[in-house]
Amino acid sequence: MLIVSYIIYLVASILFIFGIKKLGSPKTARQGNFLSSLGMFLAVVITLFDHMIITYEWIIIGLIAGSLIGSVMALKVEMTGMPQMVGLLNGFGGGASALVALGEYYKVETPNFELNIIITIVLSVLIGAVTFTGSLIAFGKLQGIVTGKVVKYPLQNPINVILFLAVLAAGVMIAIDPAQSQLLLGVVAVSLLLGILLVLPIGGADMPVAISLLNSYSGIAASMTGFVINNNMLIIAGALVGASGIILTIIMCKGMNRSLMNVVLGGWESAGSAGPAAADGVQKSHKSIDSEELAMLFDSASNVIIVPGYGMAVAQAQHAIRDLANLLESKGINVRFAIHPVAGRMPGHMNVLLAEAQVSYDKLYALEDINDDFPNTDIVLVIGANDVVNPAARHDKSSPIFGMPILNVDYAKTVIVNKRSMNVGYAGIDNELFYLDNTLMYFGDSKDAVTKLVNEIKQL
């Protein structure tokens, strides 16, 4: 039976690897999800035959309860709430890893573990607890329960360093004498606090990076727990999640031209601020357009690029956008979508929303694949995006987003920006794009505004 379990674990690991590979493209993402799910199913089933399982009662109760809760969450959560759900699930994974490690430690009256096992117990508790509370804070920021602004306090970084060193010192003492259970509880308490203190300073604009990083933490915690309970499948799966999460985090940071430390330490002071754009002493004016005039503009266009942002997600306008794209294509207009790597509130947020609306995958273009095409584009329609199209990132060295790669929408012949108002984006800064000569503001809720536009175009 042991050999069979190793073979099944190997098959599951291969399915995980191919699943992650296929998640790299929208066209194969569903296949990737299926392969990964199949791998996890096989791993869970073969684990249930472990000879060390004393009773199946609590396992069955857990499976039923977890399946019911998960099913309800999956059915009830809106697509706009998916980033929050991902953050919450990261936290559950980290918390579970910490609890398993604690359970393994306390299942014997006098702990006397080998050095490598006690080290992985401490690491599992540390990383799992940090992931748990950190993810809860990330969930709160995305949900609006916790402020999305950068939260700083006196001696912030020195305090975090001291707490981390204290955990390491406690870990060393536990490794020397595993029976010091009170120190392990101290590690739990300090790690939970660290999770809060590490994520609280991260501004809402950096949440995509934070979610990706916490996902990596949850994988590393799971891998550590795999060593604790001597489960090869958990080690492999956790390592895959940890490694892929770190790689994705680095990609996200490059997409913002920021270092990981800059994000973790709270780089954008004004992130998450609301309200109108701050005045800089210069009176700025913008031009607006209504749906009837805009319909005539689109009717005479040949090439159109649509740039979606979080505003589209909030308004759930993806289906209306699909209808607009289909209508324009029926008139012989070339329509494409430009996706910025950090648009939305989690990696791939815009891709998921557009895929839900049955927008063809081959119409979705990454920043590097479409940025050179904007000068030859008749109309760019910006739906709810803000900071990722701000020209200040290219030239204003005083801007907090200076150096961040942006979509060059301002190079197009005409730029239409759909927003509810002139309020700032999540980075909390004014957007130069709104005041350019080739920019027209189309105000209103994205879903209603696009629906009106579609109706006007149909009447032409």
Provide mean pLDDT, rounded.
87
Range of helix content: 55-70%
Report strand %.
Answer: 5-15%
What spatial form do the alpha-carbon principal axes imply?
elongated
Largest sheet, spatial ordering of strands: 3-2-1-4-5-6
What is the H-and-E element order? HHHHHHHHHHHEHHEHEHEHEEH
End-to-end separation: 71 Å
SSE class = alpha/beta
User: Cα-atom Rg, whole angstroms?
Assistant: 25 Å
Oligomer: single chain
Query: Main beta sheet, described?
Result: 6 strands, parallel
Number of strands: 6
Enumerate how many helices there are, as a single number.
17
Number of discrete domains: 2
Low-confidence stretches: 267-279
Nutshell version of this structure?
By secondary structure, the chain is an alpha/beta fold. Helices cover 57% and strands 7% of the residues. The protein folds into two domains: 77-264, no CATH class; 291-458, 3-Layer(aba) Sandwich (Rossmann fold), CATH 3.40.50.1220.
Structure commentary:
The chain is an alpha/beta fold and 460 residues long. The chain has two domains: 77-264, no CATH class; 291-458, TPP-binding domain (Rossmann fold, 3-Layer(aba) Sandwich), CATH 3.40.50. The chain contains 17 helices and six strands. It has helices at 2-22, 29-47, 57-76, 82-106, 115-143, 156-176, 181-199, 207-229, 232-255, 260-264, 291-299, 310-315, 318-330, 349-356, 367-370, 392-395, 446-458, and strands spanning 303-308, 334-339, 364-366, 379-383, 414-419, 439-443. The protein has a six-stranded parallel β-sheet with strand order 3-2-1-4-5-6. Strand 2, helix 14 and strand 3 (364-366) form a beta-alpha-beta unit. The model is unreliable at 267-279 (pLDDT under 50).
